[in-house]
Amino acid sequence: MALPIVAIIGRPNVGKSTLMNRLAQVQDAIVYDEPGVTRDRLYKRAFWRDREFLVVDTGGLVFGDDTEFLPLIRQQAMTALAESTAAIFVVDGQQGLNGADEEIAQWLREQSVPVLLAVNKCESVDQGMAQAAEFWSLGLGEPYAVSGIHGNGTGDLLDTLIEHLPSYDEIEENREIRVAIAGRPNVGKSSLLNAFVGENRSIVSPISGTTRDAIDMLVERDGKPYRLIDTAGIRKKKNVEYGPEFFGIHRAFRAIERSDVVLLVIDALDGVTEQDQKLAGRIADDGRACVVVVNKWDAVEKDSHTIYEFEQTLRSRLYFVEWSNLIFISAQTGQRVEKIFELIDAAAEQHKRRVSTSVINEVLEEATKWYSPPTTRQGRQGKIYYGTQVSSEPPAIALFVNDPKLFGDNYRRYVERQFRQALGFAGTPIRLMWRGKKLRDFERNSTVNRATKVK
Question: Which of 146, 287, 387, 447 is the most buried (most CB within 10 A)?
Answer without folding.
Answer: 146
